[in-house]
Specification:
- The structure is a homodimer.
- Chain A is α/β, with parallel strands linked by helices.
- Chain A is built from eleven helices and 18 strands.
- Chain A has an eight-stranded mixed β-sheet, sandwiched between helices.
- In chain A, helix 5 runs parallel beside helix 7, helix 6 packs antiparallel against helix 7 and helix 8 packs antiparallel against helix 9.
- The radius of gyration of chain A is 23 Å and the shape is globular.
- Chain A starts with a strand and ends with a helix.
- The model of chain A has no long low-confidence stretch (mean pLDDT 93).
- At the A-B interface, helix 1, helix 2 and helix 3 of A face helix 1, helix 2 and helix 3 of B.
């Protein structure tokens, strides 16, 4: 028997949201099977199932045990995999479903946010060698004591990448409800371009900026093991976007995406003594209170004092200001200022590394529109500017036009 | 640490049908815990969940794989146990939920209708010794290869009995939506009496006659290991009915129940050659076609020929007649007759064994009402008569009055 090529395919919640969609997925898998692939499928829960189970639990407790939540939520994927197996049998494709427990998806045991440490491939290879499509519940594994552990947001993507790693294949398709990664949000830019390729780092930057199709953890995992991810739609046959190592990309755009993140607020702690440890203590405290800080800029001012500006989610603004005020009893800043409605407009692209003047060009374009830049932050593959929220769309449009529609 | 007394409690689907009911179950468990019991809970799926999942699967296939159906259906109990654990935590009771897989409920591997062969108690005892209420999914186990296997109808009752066996306790409560076993169906008899006690054999006879609160298999299991079952309602605090060995019963009624089973049909195969094997071949064939035959009566007639009468479910009548007609090419019976609407009226009671004249009294009572008896069958603890369906209720009423309301 010749060794068949293994492909891992992950289908998200919208791709299996109802029986019709599950049947469509079955047809797609059948086509892959007939073209000679050994297919390993990873599924999410159907549509809004996970949210519904969370709502159900909230009728009992505001703060339910994480272990029991994992027990509860993991049923969603189990339903999906059984139904897909039945759908495949019905169209003459041999298939078998497994839970994370049954294929020993081992995790670190961190309930609700576990990390995969190992997966046993014996059972998967055995079923594949019997000609079966192997369907595995995404989003879940077990700890050393057989407790069910879920993997947190985007967990099924991570399950798929981990399976590609242990099955030693670089073919990993992530099916979702969009047909790839675009240069901008189609709700903002009339006709953004679909990218054929994008690097892991750009994808991570997009995820950080709230524009990612994939969750960061799965991309980090894919990057670590050089798993090429093909992000595509289960609703069409179009090619999607390949997420891959920078060095393998055919074409490196200077700017591959323009994002504009709203619902953010800016806080400035003005004129605090410029001595070590103060920033650390402030951001540690914010972190402890589970406040996600996106951009941070520190500028040195006069008299050995510095100002720190940072952005938080608008929902977290009040709590963040309270924390700043409380801590300021020690810091002695002259003022805690804030601006409730700001946007972070960013240009992302690996090509930026080898291209001069991108930042300058970006600032000029915004200035031509009289858009005031309130904070600037740069990384190796991205430049982000904080602007007043009313300019969020305009800024994205002019930047997209200048950098991408050229 | 002193050894606490272990009680196994099983709550059926109506007892956990919604969050309010689950919270009520949690309060009941809390009370048991506070009175010093170590509590092991077995749960069914919430309300109609199992039926809904079966409907969902039927959108894919008329004959889905049993293995995959077990994968699908087992999620129902998993949801229940997680929610009950959360509900218990919320009222300050330490608790942990386990799947059949996690406590190694081993079965014979017969998908959709497995039999429990063993349960590991290590994990259960460990959690109990930590003061936790242990909540286990009913209705499910695994095979030697970790595949999920469900136990068929009444499976959660069987799970509870099996747990009582391996945990070496005789305290096993079965909570349902009725508060015990009654002398007759309250929809037929205005005020039937609730039985304080009933023997395993009577309970089995009632189950066979369609009047049982418990499924036969769980009663057989309880009988085999002398587990006393306390059948009671989760909607009240009233004592229910104890199902126990005949020899332990305080009071043995001559007749403990009157049943009247409708939706049955009678078939008579008239004047077949009275030679060995013919009946066997007929009933084997009916069994192969999954037709459940309830009563069988054979009478020897003239010329070494005999007639066989038997009852089947009304839904199976047409198929059964077809089988009889087909097989009659070999048998050479003179006629295949049938009566579509009959009822089986039965009196059940262990006391019958030591009491004379019960059958005669029963026939007299029916005859006084001009109810014609078309078939009679007796067992050690029951007498059943086939009558025209229109007399079903009347027969039950007069028998209940004569034997029980005295």
């Amino acid at each position: 028997m010749s060794e068949e090529r293994i492909i891992v395919q992950k289908y998200g919640g919208t791709s299996v949201k109802d029986p019709e969609r599950i049947k469509a997925v079955a047809q797609r898998i059948k086509a892959y099977r007939e073209s000679g692939y050994s297919v390993v499928v990873v599924l999410s829960a159907m549509g809004k199932t996970t949210d519904e189970l969370i709502d159900l639990a909230s009728e009992f407790s505001e703060n339910p045990s994480k272990r029991e939540m994992d027990m509860l939520l993991s049923t969603g994927e189990q339903v999906s995999v059984a139904l897909l197996a039945i759908a495949l049998h019905e169209i003459g494709v041999d298939a078998v479903s497994y839970t994370g427990s049954q294929v020993r998806v081992r995790t670190d045991g961190n309930f609700s946010n576990g990390r995969i440490t190992n997966i046993s491939t014996g059972r998967i290879h055995k079923s594949l060698s019997e000609g079966k499509v192997v369907i595995i519940t995404g989003f879940q594994g077990i700890d050393d004591d057989e407790n069910i552990v879920t993997l947190g947001r985007g967990g099924s993507d991570t399950s798929a990448v981990a399976l590609a790693v242990v099955l030693k294949t670089r073919d990993c398709e992530i099916y979702t409800d969009v047909d790839g990664v675009y240069t901008a949000d189609p709700r903002v830019i009339a006709s953004p371009k679909k990218l054929k390729e994008i690097s892991y780092d750009e994808m991570l930057e997009l995820a950080r900026l709230g524009a990612g199709v994939l969750h960061s953890r799965s991309v980090e995992f894919a990057k670590k093991f050089s798993i090429k991810l093909h992000v595509r739609s289960s609703f069409s046959d179009e090619e999607g976007t390949s997420v891959m190592p920078t060095e393998e990309m055919m074409e490196k755009f200077v700017i591959s995406g323009i994002t504009s993140k709203q619902d953010e607020s800016k806080i400035t702690v003005r004129d605090i003594p410029d001595k070590p440890g103060i920033a650390a203590r402030l951001f540690n405290e914010l972190g402890k209170q589970k406040i996600y800080v996106n951009m941070i800029v520190q500028s040195t001012g006069h008299d050995n004092r510095a100002s720190i500006s940072f952005t938080v989610k608008k929902d977290d603004l009040k709590k963040s200001i309270d924390i700043c005020n409380t801590m300021n009893r020690e810091f002695g800043a002259t003022a805690i200022e804030f601006k409730e409605d700001i946007a972070i407009v960013s240009a992302v692209g690996v090509g930026m590394l080898s291209s001069y003047g991108v930042a300058g060009k970006m600032f000029s374009i915004l200035s031509e529109q009289n858009i005031n830049i309130e904070m600037i932050s740069t990384s190796e593959i991205g430049i982000s500017c904080v602007v007043d929220a009313i300019y969020a769309e305009l800024a994205a449009k002019v930047l997209h036009k200048a950098f991408i529609e050229v």
